[in-house]
Write a structure and sequence with these properties.
single chain, 250 residues, 2 domains, RNA_pol_sigma_r2, sigma factor activity, DNA-binding, RNA polymerase sigma factor (Sigma-70 family)
Length: 250
């Protein structure tokens, strides 16, 4: 699976064919934010479907703003873009004013005492939240890994757990993970890989995984995962509904 950051860079460099793939990877996050925003903005015209559509354009805007050299994740740019687009949809900034009439100089003093400071000192740093957002994202990933590891502990033996951990925690390929886990054949590793993912569906930790994946039950995992799954899709991709859900945890 290509990361959000790599997809954003490819799209920014003109490879528009990767737009649907990036949207598929961030869509559930946008849906979660849209539902929460709509609940919190009951007094405004904030329809969930309109917010989700705005989230798509927010993703495109975030792609253009994404600069990997700044050290921030693509999700950070997306969050800022979502906030702007959602506010526009909800009519939070519904009035327009002539800037030349209402503008103030940033050098204007706050009080009569020049030592107190100027309006410029009150401007928020748009990058100030990035470290906190990065910590929040890292905490989410650790929580998802902990929940998955807790499920694996009571589900399978050490070799199967090592296989899953190497693939989804370390990002290794099936071949690399199988070798590190002690498998002598790739076929055996593939068989155990599918077995573990299917068993996760009936694991007691399903609720914890659901909450982490879809934002506290905003979206139902089983029903969403089953959409688009058929015998034909199984033959084409080799993935069941449960496997599709587990793959999203990475």
């Amino acid at each position: 699976m290509i990361s959000n950051e790599e997809l954003a860079l490819r799209i920014k460099n003109g490879e528009a064919e990767y737009i649907p793939e990036l949207w598929e990877q961030v869509r559930r996050y946008v849906e979660m934010r849209a539902k929460r925003y709509a609940r919190n903005m009951e007094n405004h015209c904030a329809d969930v479907d309109d917010l989700i559509q705005a989230g798509y354009f927010a993703m495109l805007a975030a792609v253009q703003d994404y600069e990997p050299e700044r050290g921030a994740k693509f999700l950070t740019c997306l969050i800022w873009a979502i906030q702007k687009e959602f506010a526009a949809v909800a009519g939070v900034r519904s009035t327009r004013r002539d800037a030349t009439v209402y503008a103030d100089s940033l050098d204007a003093p706050l009080t009569d005492d020049p030592e107190v400071g100027t309006l410029h000192d009150l401007l928020a740093d748009s990058r100030a939240q990035e470290p906190f957002l990065a910590v929040e994202e890292e905490s989410y990933i650790h929580a998802a890994h902990d929940a998955l590891e807790a499920a694996l502990n009571g589900l399978c033996d050490a070799r199967k757990k090592r296989l899953i951990s190497e693939m989804y925690f370390e990002g290794r390929s099936m071949t690399e993970a199988a070798e590190l886990a002690g498998y002598t054949s790739k076929q055996g590793a593939e068989r155990d890989h599918k077995w573990v993912l299917r068993r996760l569906r009936h694991c007691s930790q399903t609720r914890a995984l659901r909450e982490l994946l879809h934002g506290y039950d905003d979206v139902d995992i089983p029903s969403e995962a089953i959409k688009g799954v058929s015998v034909r899709r199984w033959k084409e991709t080799g993935e069941s509904a449960t496997e599709r859900v587990a793959l999203k945890l990475t």
